[in-house]
Design a protein that fits this description.
The protein has 91 residues and is an alpha+beta fold. The protein has a domain of 62 residues: 3-Layer(aba) Sandwich (YefM-like fold). The protein has four helices and three strands. It has a three-stranded mixed beta sheet with strand order 1-2-3. A hairpin with a 2-residue loop joins strand 2 and strand 3. It is elongated, with a radius of gyration of 22 Å. The protein starts with a strand and ends with a helix. The model has no long low-confidence stretch (mean pLDDT 87).
Length: 91
């Protein structure tokens, strides 16, 4: 997936141009003084395309396997809720 970079000022002055790019399947990274602060992405991407884009941007690492179920970190005693335990812990 192609990607463009635009400053906030440029995005404000050329919004129609960047929306056309998004409609065409290109994402636009929005920067504030050179620091990325957001991304304009096409809405019609399916999950596989979004995962591929995140992997390409090195924001996601995934082997493709399902995660193993985890055991609960804490056991809640019978008759008490998690909220009650938090209140007791604060006292």
């Amino acid at each position: 997936m192609a990607q463009s970079v635009a400053s906030i000022r440029e995005l404000k002055s050329r919004l129609s141009h960047f929306l056309r790019l998004a409609r065409g399947g290109e994402s636009v990274v929005i920067t504030d003084r050179g620091v990325p602060v957001g991304r304009l992405v096409p809405i019609e991407q399916d999950l596989d395309e979004r995962v591929a884009a995140l992997r390409a941007a090195r924001q996601l690492q995934w082997s493709g396997r399902r995660l193993a179920p985890r055991k609960p970190a804490v056991r809640v005693p019978a008759g008490k809720s998690v909220a009650q335990l938090i209140i007791e812990d604060r006292d």
